[in-house]
Amino acid sequence: MATTMAAPGRVTVRMKVNGVEYAAEVEPRLLLVNFLRDNLGLTGTHIGCDTSQCGACVIHFNGEPVKSCTLLTVQADGADLTTIEGIAKNGEYDEVQMGFWEMHGLQCGYCTPGMIMTANAFLDRNPNPTEAEIRHALEGNLCRCTGYQNIVKAVQYAANQRGGGGAAPGPGTDLEFEHKDVIEHAPENLQDWGDQLAGQEEQ
Ligand code: FES
Ligand code: FES
Fold first, then answer.
1. All domains of the chain, ordered by start, with CATH?
2. Angle at CA 139, nearest 5°, toward 170 and 172?
3. Distance 52 CA to ligand 1 centre (A)
């Protein structure tokens, strides 16, 4: 079979992403995160820093969680990748995605795809984690909004849904918290919110 030469200064790469085979000509310097977002349109993988610290760009590379901003696209030649767009199966969210929904594990949502990809791979390796192990696993993922409490609960929820029994809460964890508690106590509008705050100050 005839092979096509890449244009000068470009390299041909082939990879599978979310079960689909892709071939493309790219500049050797192109980062994998930019290839996924700009070439393939998979914008669920986020860019949150330029120092490889935030973890918003985590994908699965041959089943391992990696920060896609730390790899060149040419390094993924021949690889099997999964992004956040490929985590749901048969139209159903997976347990970690459901955990973030049920435990309200986000605020702005910017870190969420990376958190889910990291947690998903972590639970594959450790289906029965302690709270400390969950927190350790997520150390490479930064969240500027949540304070992490509900993110940990989301992973505990997922572990329990997957059948791991050891996701029992550790000291200081309140698994009785449920999403409905937030909804029930949420103010209807700004006026309602102001009234609630005024009531708290009077007590
Ligand atoms: S974009 Fe922040 S670690 Fe990759
Ligand atoms: S929910 Fe906003 S950065 Fe994590």
1. 11-86 (3.10.20.30), 95-197 (1.10.150.120)
2. 20
3. 4
